[in-house]
Amino acid sequence: MARNFKSTTGRTFALVDSGLNSPRDLAFDGERGALYVADSGAKKIYRYHVYVKDNGASLGLITDGVQLCIMQNADVSWVNVDLNGDVFYSDATAKTINRIPVDVIDMLSKGQYSSSDLVLLSEKSLESGGGAAPESGSHFVYSVYQGSVNPHVSTPGGLVSDGARIYWTNQAEGKTAGSIVEGEVAPKLPKAKAGEPAATAFPSRVLTNETDAGYGVTKSNKYMFYAADKNGIGVVSGVTEGGATFDFISGLAAPRGLTWDGDQTIFVADEAAGVVYSFPGGRLMSGAPFTKSAVLHGAFGIWAEHLAVPFASTL
Fold first, then answer.
1. Which site in 105, 184, 197, 237 is 20 to 30 Å from 84, CA atoms measured?
2. What pTM was estimated for this model as a whole?
3. Which superkingdom heads the taxonomic lineage of this protein's source (predicted)?
4. Which 3 state secondary structure label does DSSP give 129?
């Protein structure tokens, strides 16, 4: 837990301590109590149900111990879930930004399908249908943005969705493809003007291209934040809607996962330092004060909730 940008205890507790190979990013669906873990070693995304446990003097989180695989055979280090319950992940090898609809996850949980039955529907296939996806109730996963046809996807990293739009970073070639890119959850191909060729990719736009390598990304009610390598120095930058960029904190070793706590605080996991830091993100500033919130070997993924801040690490 955090208060005034600082950890109240600095202690960490194992929420899931078995059945994972190399857990990386995390995403939590508070509405459904679902925790999603991207396991890059297993090339899978798992879902756990999380519950609040009253310990008498305090509240904590526990899982039901059931591990559900919702995606397999993918190069997954980054995952996100939006307010609709849809899960998004980037695949660095396939160079894609993908969406798993919540109804597909529901069917997986009911045993109607297994993750091996899922069919990845490519952007090219969606284009042939005018951008329209098949009806719900199917077992399709949508590869919405693809590097093979979209100039703003190179080697995608972290991603976040607000339910209508999706944002992602590029871990390479960010100065050309975009350090942070904005797209749509359910994009449609723009109609070509008379005499002009038809569009070949769903629309997307670059919010900033200050760095080649971008990693975690999160969205507050005011700004976009992303972790990056800027000339060999780890930074977390805030970006306004107009594209103005401020380095909130710098001097980190290898900043990776980012999350916003829903109020005024941003958390960042520094993988190389094995530390999770927090800093105020309510107003634009350079050189914001930051505080060590937790020490965790190989800290990578992170997600903030009101009761606790779950981390993924290679411990």
1. 237
2. 0.88
3. Eukaryota
4. coil
